[in-house]
Amino acid sequence: MSPESKKLFNIIILGIAFMFMFTAFQTCGNVAQTVIRSLNSTDFHGSGYTSMAIIYGVFSASNLITPSVVAIVGPQLSMFASGLFYSMYIAVFIQPFPWSFYTASVFIGIAAAESDRRTVFIALTVISLVGTVLFFLIRKPDSENVLGEDESSDDQDLDINESAQNNVTKAVDAFKKSLRLCVTKEMLLLSVTTAYTGVEMTFFSGVYGTCIGAINKFGTEEKSLIGLSGIFIGIGEILGGSLFGLLSKNTRFGRNPVVLLGMLVHFLAFYLIFLNVPGDAPVAPAEGTDSIAYIEPSKEVAIFCSFLLGLGDSCFNTQLLSILGFLYSEDSAPAFAVFKFVQSICAAVAFFYSNYLLLHWQLLVMVMFGFFGAISFFTVEWEAAAVVARGSDYRSI
């Protein structure tokens, strides 16, 4: 197999593996609070919000050391180990206990009958494991330097020792770069935007589905609407990613219009959710809520808001990844590690306060972060445009 074919093969395997893993995990996260809330009437007592807060809290801390770990053990084993932890977390839902539920949450960094719940989560666990095993199909690139017949074993041992030392050096350097990037002007400004993506990701991936499932006015379809909501969030993400991730290369207006569109789309979604969803829906008991917001709860409006949440999220994320790749094109790994660190720690905080804050307060927090996050992004983008004016190729990003 040629090097180009091997690279294409690895990309396809990675895409399929991550598709399996995150289909299972995101589905699990979307229904976690609803499932756990339905179990709290039994001997089990826990919170899906708290579980996700633990996951993203540990995830945020581990992101700063991730480049170092990958430099030592390699990407293949790192991804395989991560896949096992994802699968373990999903498997806990088959027969959940509080200690195993929260412990599995650390390692990751269904209001239906119990047999149905077990069937669903057994299937999700198998799907995640399939994705994990696929990592073993990844093929290592051919070594550029092939050992000659005249090389001695001592020379080979020396090369191995030097390679191990280089890995340690790379690990330390990657960690130091991540720390230095945290205090740069550009990264501090982009951290406000990144913080918003963490907060709104918490809302659409865990809180909003729980709110829909708690509205008794939706009748017997309230729980099935959670899955439909997730589907339309995905449609919005795919549409936005296609339009703004691929077609944005041809725009001469830069990234700011896309971020502005994302902010306006999200603000429209927040306003409609404020009108349509009762304020106590995020913290409603297992029996749900009979409250009404400002209009009679509408299934169509609820699902439309799911689409808007996904579309707006894709606007922010595609442009954040684009500008990070532009500013730190020579060594992007530490920059993306800081990005995931800030995003994850804000997601953890948001999942934690979701246990206590009513819906309108959560929407207010997102509006404030969204506004200041957009302003911060505009500032960095204007500076990036100035760099382009001095000779860099902006539209190649």
Automatic annotation (TrEMBL):
Locations listed in the record: Membrane
Any Pfam family hit: UNC-93
Keyword Membrane among record annotations: yes
Entry keywords, A to Z: Glycoprotein, Membrane, Transmembrane, Transmembrane helix
Major localization listed first in the record, in broad terms: membrane
Topology of this chain in the membrane: Multi-pass membrane protein
Keyword Membrane part of the UniProt annotation: yes
GO cellular component terms, semicolon-separated: membrane
Classification via InterPro entries: Ion_channel_UNC-93 (IPR010291), MFS_trans_sf (IPR036259), UNC-93-like_regulator (IPR051617)
Positions of transmembrane segments: 12-33, 53-74, 86-113, 119-138, 225-246, 258-277, 359-380
Similarity field: Belongs to the unc-93 family.
Name of this protein: UNC93-like protein MFSD11
Organism of provenance: Catagonus wagneri (Chacoan peccary)
Organism lineage string: Eukaryota, Metazoa, Chordata, Craniata, Vertebrata
